[in-house]
Design brief:
Elements (H helix, E strand, L loop, with lengths): L2 E5 L6 H12 L2 E4 L3 H12 L9 E3 L3 H7 L12 E2 L1 H11 L3 H9 L4 E4 L1 H7 L7 E5 L1 H5 L6 E9 L2 E5 L11 H6 L1 H11 L3 H13 L5 H10 L12 H12 L8 H11 L1 E5 L9 E8 L6 H4 L4 E6 L2 H11 L4 E5 L9 E5 L2 H10 L5 E3 L3 H13 L5 E3 L6 H9 L3 E4 L16 E4 L7 H6 L1 H16 L14 E5 L13 E4 L14 E6 L2 H7 L4 E3 L2 E6 L8 H10 L4 H4 L1 H4 L4 H11 L3 E2 L2 H8 L6 H13 L3 E8 L6 E7 L2 H11 L1
Parallel strand pairs: 1-11, 1-12, 2-5, 2-6, 3-4, 3-5, 6-11, 13-18, 13-19, 14-16, 14-17, 15-16, 17-18
Antiparallel strand pairs: 7-8, 7-10, 9-10, 20-22, 21-22, 23-25, 24-25
Helix pairs in contact: 4-5, 10-11, 12-13, 22-25
């Protein structure tokens, strides 16, 4: 038995590698917690050199199948993979439910692709050789999760307290009511927590001179919350109950109840983070212990392959299973790091600048509530072509938004943050990092911070280029507050930059131009135009070959892997027109000493630091030809005579490297 951890950076083909390795080892069950990511895996699978008889099946749950019935004919199709649309079509002919047709097909398939909830319920491990768990978030589904228990909302000095989980009472399945009446009794006790209790504690804290009366009141309120009724159960009984419930099929509205019930089984404590400061309130969480579920099911596979970014999480997973023969493939080199420019600036001012130039952008805001407030803020400053992406927004809608120049606000756990590639966007504005899980904050604050930053960076990297698409495009990331300690982009942090200085990057970003639609224009452009509301939306991607001398040189500084060159471009206020002036002045200039070149540049630029920076850039670009040599009569030393290349020659050589 041999297992594998593929701890690979984004855009390294990790999913494709895991699929190829899995197929080599035998019959595969591939899991991802998002159907959009599973569809991407299907596309990756089709690119492999597969046997003509290779067949796969993509399985969706019964509730999801009912959702797609109305548009199943529009679903993407694959050469080697049967999909729910195929099952819907055949099911209508044979009067069979599509879900059970998919399960039947899976028995004879080479690979099955689905979500964990379907797998552990209906797909026995002895039907497969290999289990692939793709992405860290998919690993998380095998553990109980934390739940919001009590929430205090603050708005213009007004407070309101609510218990969100009480809204689930009407959806409690009869099986839970019958077999676990103590759970219902506990919910009724929670319902008796009165708002007056909070106000009594709040007023007491104010009278005692508390600097944070809301937090102190909530901490006092936590002492009134009864523990869940299952704390005395032995661990094996909790695991057995959780797995039995999670393996059953439930109505869509009942799943949140089941998740909350499972969390209460593994109750670790109630938690209020004193230091986190959401702009609109405070939350008390029920924290669930991270106990790995479905161990017997998982250990039924000969091989398990985990593809993710957090090696520690994967190692903890295998340790919990008692599987010690694990091969680790790890790579920390992110191939597109040089494309990124990370700065600290005012995202609202930058947003106005981008919007005025028809450059669509993304905004990351941590949580849904904060995202909604940020969206409102952008609209208040005059940016109306902007929308919110939540956890249900389809990928196709996001692509349509870009092609019509629409900017988007997203947050952790939304469609964009969950592994969807968006290389057509060139800008991410980061307003708020979000929060690590209460479990991590409660048990290991240092690890919580690291996990949070890792999740944030993965969300940012959604805009990264992909092979053969936008590989030369600069990608701009702007933090509204201090830039955290990033991992893959640590060498691409340029520091604080005034919004006005970022104007120099605009020519290198893709934009959307809107023109009145007419058929001849579309034909002349040779584009697949998007006709929406009588307008033609044209994607304008800067062509490097068409840039002028100053823009070519400026572009080279943005893409430079030498931090001494790239990071000073904004600090020194370098502009493309400066670079054009300097280069044209010394084009063809011959010199035997660097001092001579400096003196020549001083005729068009007086600042010594800028001259030294420019000479460093020229050296990196190999902008000099050796045309001769000489001898110093005083020292007897030989020296080279260099000549600054004509720009046309430099352009050809530089573009060839690109």
């Amino acid at each position: 038995m041999a297992d594998y951890i593929l701890a690979l950076p984004p855009r390294s083909g990790g999913t494709t590698i895991s699929l190829a390795l899995g197929i080599h080892l035998g019959k595969v069950l591939y899991l991802n917690n998002r159907y959009a990511n599973i569809e991407q895996a299907c596309r990756n699978l089709e690119k492999l050199d597969l046997d003509p008889n290779f067949k796969g099946v993509l399985i969706m749950g019964q509730n999801r199948i009912e959702e797609i019935r109305q548009y199943y004919l529009k679903m993407p199709t694959y050469n080697h993979i049967l999909i729910p649309a195929d099952a819907i079509a055949l099911g209508m002919l044979e009067n069979k439910h599509p879900y059970y047709l998919l399960l039947e097909w899976a028995k004879n398939s080479s690979i099955t692709l689905t979500v964990p909830q379907i797998a552990w319920r209906d797909l026995p491990p002895d039907h497969y050789d290999v289990l692939i768990i793709d992405e860290d978030r998919t690993l998380d589904t095998f553990y109980p999760d934390d739940v919001e228990l009590i929430k205090v909302t603050i708005s213009k000095s007004q407070f309101s307290i609510e218990i969100p989980i009480l809204s689930l009472i009407d959806n409690i399945p009869n099986e839970i009511k019958k077999n676990y009446p103590e759970f219902l009794d506990w919910l009724n006790e929670l319902a008796e927590l009165k708002q007056n209790n909070f106000w009594d504690y709040y007023n007491e804290a104010v009278q005692n001179g508390s600097s944070e009366p809301i937090i102190d009141a909530l901490e006092s309120l936590m002492g009134d919350i009864p523990e869940p009724p299952f704390t005395s159960w032995v661990l094996d009984e909790k695991i057995r109950t959780a797995e039995e419930l999670l393996r059953k099929g439930w109505k869509e509205e009942e799943y949140d109840v089941i998740r909350f019930f499972v969390a209460s089984l593994f109750y670790l404590g109630y938690y209020l983070e004193r230091h986190r400061k959401p702009p609109n309130g405070k939350i008390i969480y029920l924290v669930a212990d991270r106990v790995l579920l479905f161990k017997d099911w998982l250990n039924g596979f000969k091989h398990i392959i985990i593809r993710g970014n957090d090696r520690r999480k994967a190692e903890a997973f295998f340790n919990a299973l008692g599987r010690t023969k694990v091969g680790i493939v790890e790579d920390q080199n992110f191939r597109y790091a040089r494309n990124f420019i990370v700065v600290h600036s005012d995202i609202f001012e930058v947003g106005k600048l981008l919007d005025s130039q028809n450059v669509p952008f993304l905004v990351f805001a941590g949580t849904k509530e904060i995202a909604e407030k940020v969206l409102q803020k952008f609209r208040e400053i005059g940016i109306h072509n902007i929308d919110l992406v939540d956890n249900l927004t389809p990928y196709e809608y996001i692509k349509d938004c870009y092609m019509t120049g629409r900017s988007l606000v997203f947050y952790a756990n939304s469609t964009i943050s969950r592994g969807v590639d968006l290389p057509f966007y060139d800008v991410v504005l980061v307003y708020h990092f979000g929060f690590a899980t209460p479990y991590e904050e409660m048990t290991n604050p240092d690890l919580a911070t690291e996990t949070l930053i890792n999740e944030l960076e993965q969300s940012i990297l959604r805009i990264s280029p992909i092979p053969f698409y936008r590989e030369k495009s600069p990608k701009l990331v702007i933090f509204h507050s201090n830039i955290p300690k990033l991992h893959y982009l640590s060498n691409r942090i340029f520091g604080v930059v005034e919004p006005s200085k970022l104007k120099t990057i605009i020519p290198f970003l893709s934009k959307i131009e809107k023109k009145e639609f007419n058929e001849s224009l579309g034909k002349n452009l040779g584009l697949k135009e998007t006709k929406i509301s009588g307008r033609l939306y044209l994607l304008i991607t800067p062509k490097i070959k068409s840039l002028d001398i100053g823009e070519i040189l400026f572009y080279s500084t943005l893409m430079s892997q030498n931090p001494k060159i790239s990071k000073k471009v904004f600090l020194l206020g370098i502009r493309p027109e400066d670079l054009a002036l300097w280069y044209k002045h010394i084009e063809g200039f011959e010199f035997g000493k660097w001092k001579e070149l400096r003196e020549e540049l001083r005729e068009v630029e007086r600042k010594k630091e800028k001259i030294e920076w420019f000479i460093s850039l020229l050296k990196e670009l190999d902008a000099f030809d050796e045309v001769g040599s000489g001898v110093n009569l005083r020292t007897g030393r030989h020296y080279r005579i260099l000549k600054v290349k004509k720009f046309d020659k430099l352009r050809k050589e530089y573009l060839l490297l690109l």
